[in-house]
Amino acid sequence: MKKQLLICLVLLLSGCVDKEILDEINIEVGVGYDLAEDSKDKYRGTVLFQEFQPDKSVINRTFSGSGKLRQDLLLDVTRQSSEPVVTGGLKVAVFGPEISREGIYDLIDSFQRDASIGARVFVVTSEDKAEDVMKGEYGTRGNSTYIYNLIQHNIDHRDIPKTNLHIVSRDYYETGKDTFLPRIKKIADDKVEIIGVSLFDKDKEVEILPLKDLFFFKLLVDKYSQGNFDVKLEKGNLAAVKSIKSKHKIKIIDNHASININIEGIIREYTGRKLTSEVVNDVEKKLEKKVERECLKLLKQFQELGIDPVGLGQIKKTQHRKFDYKKWEDEYKTLEFDVKCNVDVEETGIIE
Amino acid sequence: MKEQPIPERLQISPFLVFYMVMSIQIGIGVLGYQRIIAMDAGYDAWISILFAGGCIHVIVWLIYKICETAGGDIVTAHKYVAGNFIGKALSAIFIAYFILFSLTVLRTFIEVIQVWMFPEISTFWFSFAFMALCVYIIFGGFRTVVGIAFFGLVLPAYLLLTFGWAIKFSNFYNLLPIWDHSIKELLTASYHMSLAFIGFESIIFFYPFIKEPKKSQKWAHFAVLTTTIIYTILAIITFAYFSEDQLSKQIWPSLTMWKIVEMPFVERFEYIGIANWNLIILPNVCISVWIASRLIKRVFNIRQKAGVFFVVAAVLSIINFLDTRKEINTLNDYVGKMGFIFNFIYIPLLFAAVMMTKKLKKGKKK
Fold first, then answer.
1. Cα–Cα distance for residue pair A196/A219, rounded to 1 Å
2. Which of B246, B266, B270 to mutate to test the interface with A (most CBs of A within 10 A)?
3. Which chain A positions have a beta carbon within 8 Å of B123's beta carbon?
4. In this structure, what CATH number is given to the domain that contains residue A343?
5. Domain total for chain A?
6. For the whole model, what pTM was predicted?
């Protein structure tokens, strides 16, 4: 009796849902969005698939479609693809220049709504059309893996603050904080590079921070675990401070934000003659000065643009009960800053 | 007329109450309670969880007092207070409650499967297979149900660790400032914890099946404490992970948090997590169907197996009529409310009635 029941169940349960065999589907690994030229449609999307060859190499295959919704694009792409399209493997989403100025919220929302899309997707903006970025041939492991790794190691070791789809949407929904996205540019058919960070007001891009500001930007919005920075000294000497660890503390009292930045690092390269303790002190002082000056400049710039990527509003909210966001919006325009930086050079390498 | 005691070979050890209580408490409520309580009390809502947990300890204590005084389960207590006929009529209400409870759990879980994994899965056939498994377990007797409760709690326990991935992307300053909400808001949030917490009242139904029931009380309290702590920690991680407006849009925050999990051998962890959640849901449905069928047996004096078939048939026929998110949400709300009324209003009333009857009966004897 029990056995019969079991057999019955096996028969009933198999074939309840569609099978998806890995070799017989197209997994969307990257996607680029542009504004459509045809005014009837809204978006033009380029979907990137990977095709694994028997000799372990990867072929990048792109399909483009246009439509008013993300689903329309997928439908358009499905019409061209020989296999069903699934979105579970998405790693990178690139937004073209016009679309990021127009607003990206609809697409972010659609990513969030899709149960099969992960939270670690990197969302980036691009200098030229997202379609062109998708259509390159970067590296040997496929375009999306290339761009993904490019951004990942720049977050881990360099000047890009921590970001992914989850953080982008969290900042978007946070009152008192604005979103930022890394910005990339295709420089050759087989190369892309990071050229800065796009700053957003709500979901519209308003400003692009160039590379030279990124170090200070990351000091303000994130913490470093392995940064590096070159300090110019007198007589044209240079010292490279490496393995930078940083932390920031922000306190807002009576419309005055005091920002404390703590930096620890070691000197790896020095072009002068002798690295005496005076020189080390000099490096510390110079770096402190520089950080204070540049961070203040950035904060002032954000204030003028009316954006708050540092999340000062959110910080004020956590420090004050009965926080009134409406009032804050006015207060932010007249908010005063002071930035204090403290640099500790802990080691100077294995020689003195 | 004295009731027949349950033979010892059918009873369970006191410590197993821990698994029974916890496994029926943790079910579908835990998938989305963070959002509901955050709507009332914002990010102070974790205080409400602790408060609700505290209140439940009192109710558990009351349940044990009722059962001890009446010398049996809720049917005995009703008979003790209101006599045979009215007592049975009162007990019959709870058949409906537990049918609804199992229905809610099952339908909500199927909705999760449909939204997150297989949109085309058939509600009826999945419930049919699930219910067939439940019938099979329940026919094994109460001890088998307890066994399933044990495994349904211990095997998926590792899922708790998977929420650790979210910590790396969390900002615990979100929780500040503490006490930014009024007492009233905090209490409303506590009230809305009902759906996540209910289930512990099952003790009042399987009390006669516990060997040395007095010893089991500490395990029941321990179970409630553990659930409270798990809920609080999970809520704190969730609050740190999401921003407040973002959380208010997540229907199942606990599942959304799995989207950040990254393992070398699995791209989307949700699929593993939700498949594992089946094991957490199984004891929920089994215990509630068992209680409903047990009540049918006690009230109408028919065989429990017939009762099981009746309950299963009822669930399988009603489940087809619930299709949309709105309907399922309403069902969840209702069951939460019913659970609240039963636990926090009816049980104290019953307690008072039992105590008064006890005094009256003592007086008569003299």
1. 15
2. B246
3. none
4. 3.30.300.210
5. 2
6. 0.89
